[in-house]
Each structure stands twice: as structure tokens, then as C-alpha cells.
Amino acid sequence: MRFLDQPDVLAPFVAGNRSRAFGAGLDPFAYERVTGTLRSLYDWPAAFRAEGDRLLSAAEEHAGRGRAVSAGAALRGAARWLHFSTLLPHPDRQATARAARAADRAMHRALALTEPSAERVEGASFAGWLRRPAGADASGGTADVAPAGGAVEGSAVAVRGGRGAAGEPVPVVVVVPGLDSAKEEFHAVADALLARGVAVCSVDGPGQGVMAAVRAPRADFPHVLGEVLDAVAARPGVDVSRAGVLGLSLGGYYASVSAAYEPRLRAAVAVSGPYRLDWDGLPLFVRDTLAGRCGSVAAAREFAGRVDLTEAAPRIDRPLLVVEGGTDAIPGVTRGAALAAAAPDATLLTVPHGDHLLGNCRPDWLPRTADWLADRLGASAVATAPRRPR
Hints:
- This protein is an alpha/beta fold and 390 residues long.
- The chain has helices at residues 10-16, 18-24, 28-35, 44-64, 68-84, 93-114, 187-194, 221-233, 250-261, 284-294, 297-306, 337-342, 366-377; strands spanning 119-123, 126-131, 144-145, 157-160, 170-176, 199-204, 238-248, 265-271, 276-277, 320-325, 333-334, 346-351, 380-383.
- Helix 7 (187-194) links the parallel strand 5 and strand 6 (199-204).
- Mean pLDDT is 91; it is low at 140-165 and 382-390.
- One of its GO terms (molecular function) is hydrolase activity.
């Protein structure tokens, strides 16, 4: 029996993805409205695409009136909803691929309007966006800019790369999504790093986002990350000798195994990442999703068998932060505490009430995680104290 055909699966799936949706920036009231119309999980993709299309129409209206900021916000929202329409192992893989491409286009348009310095980076096994901190141009220069979210009267933020000298390139973090996620999902993670003076390259790797239709997942992810770093190294203003990686869910495995074998990485973060997978113990949703993205059940089983950090963990000789939610328990998944115990320079951050991806407790881990990475990569984002008006 397919996951989608199980009885009484709709309500648990909606509830189980609620904090993930909120953490990704979907409006909570819209999530309740959209999911409240569903009669079965087969309706999920079309309902979420319709909300994405509604925001695309709003973006067109804003753009037509010359309101670039509003248009950009609507496009970012559309990208989120279109991505969330692809979460299920739906049998219509072509519709899923079209939605992933639409999400990618929406994010492209959003960045073109609100962050024109963002650059497309892509290779044979990945596609993504390279974004630099505000005030750091493509040559690594700096400027004083207003804080994100609105300026406090009389205040400014000086965003500086490296040791703060003007013209120096900034460090970079590659953000890697998980099994059914994509680069359009983790806006808050990227924004937290950018605010701390770190460039961000958010990517879809094999089996993810726009790459899911053309590349199956790869357990040997260091090869993929190496391609990403090669591409980023060719862009001005970014220092790949101060590179980090942050992976979420299955991306946590990708980040960890890359930290063991990619020498250019200075630090790594695994959020809700697995230490090992046991195919026979995995939930049907995970097995169906893997089978769809790997191309067959046999290929999915082989891939799951290779997701095992037993040999790689002792080789991680650079700082590693393992972030876990205390309530995150997925059958067939050995959690990251085993990774933290095996890696020589690992720190374990557990949020007791956190769930998978910790979307229900973002303030409890994301600021600390972004600060941890920025410190280890030598970034500097200094906010001046507000000046009293005279």
C-alpha cells in the first residue's frame, strides 16, 4: 500500500508538517485555511500550488504598480508554497517537477527585484543561489546599511567580511536541504547567516528541488559539495578558504559526510540529521519518497544503506555542531547524538521541546547556530548602538 492510500493519514500529515511550514515562513492562518479544504492527501499538491499561484498574481499586481518590495515578498511567498506542494510522494512526478521549477523561477524573480546582487550558481549535480551580505558587493567591499526589518533611528549596521578590512572577501556557508526539501524552504537560515556577514549558497543537490527530476540522490555528497565550492570560488567577493556547510534533515548527513572528506570546509552544522538509516524500520512515507526520487525501491534501499556515518564521523577533524530536537524520533533513524559522540570536535545542541527541523522553537537554536558558524568562519557583522537624536 502506498503512503497516500493509507487510511486516516491526512490529519496526522497536516499536523506533522505544521511547525515545518511555519518555520519555513508559510503564513500559519493560510496553512490552516488551505489544509482545511483537503479531502485527502492527493489534494495537497493542487491546493498548495493554488496558493502559490495566488501569490504570483499578487506579485504581478504589485510589480505593475512599481512596488518592488511588495512584489518581491509575494514572490518569495509563492516560492515557499510551490515548494511545499512537492513534499508528498505523489504519483504525478511530472506535476511535481513543474511545481519545483515554478518555485525556482519565483525565487529567481524575487531576488532579481529585492537582491539583484544574488547570482545563480549551478553544475552537473546542483543548482542554487549565491547571496552576499548587505553592504558587501561582488568585489568584497563594504558599506553601512540599515538593519534588516527596518532601521532604528540613528543606527546603522556595518557588515564586514574577514577581519573587517574593506575589500576583503566574505566567508560562505552552503545550505543543504533534506530528502523532500529544497533551497526555497530555508529562508530564515539564510537570512540569519547573511545578517552576520556570511555569504550563503543555498542549493538543490541530486534528488532535491529542481534537480529531483534529473538526478537521483547521492550518498557520496562530498563530490557534490566540491562542485559547489568550485563554482563559488570562481565568483568574486567570496572566500572559500573560509567555507562552512549547514545541512537540515537528510542534509545533515550530507553536511557531516562532506565535513569528513572535503578539506576546504572549516566548520559544519547538522540540523536534525541522521547518523544512520535502517531501511526496514523507516516509515512508509520516507520509503515511498526515497523510491520516487531514487527511481526504484531497490535503488532507494541501496541509497539508505549507504547513509551511515560510522566510518566518516571519526574523520571529521573540524568543528561540528549537531542540533537536535528532543521530541524528534523517526523510526529507522539513528539520531545525531551518536554523531556528536563519535566526531572528535563536535558540540551537541539539544532543544528538549524541539521537533524535527525544530520549526517549533526557532529562537532556541537558530541565532546560536548562526553565531557559532559566523565565529568559526571569521565573519564580522557589527551593529552600532542606536544614537540618541539631538
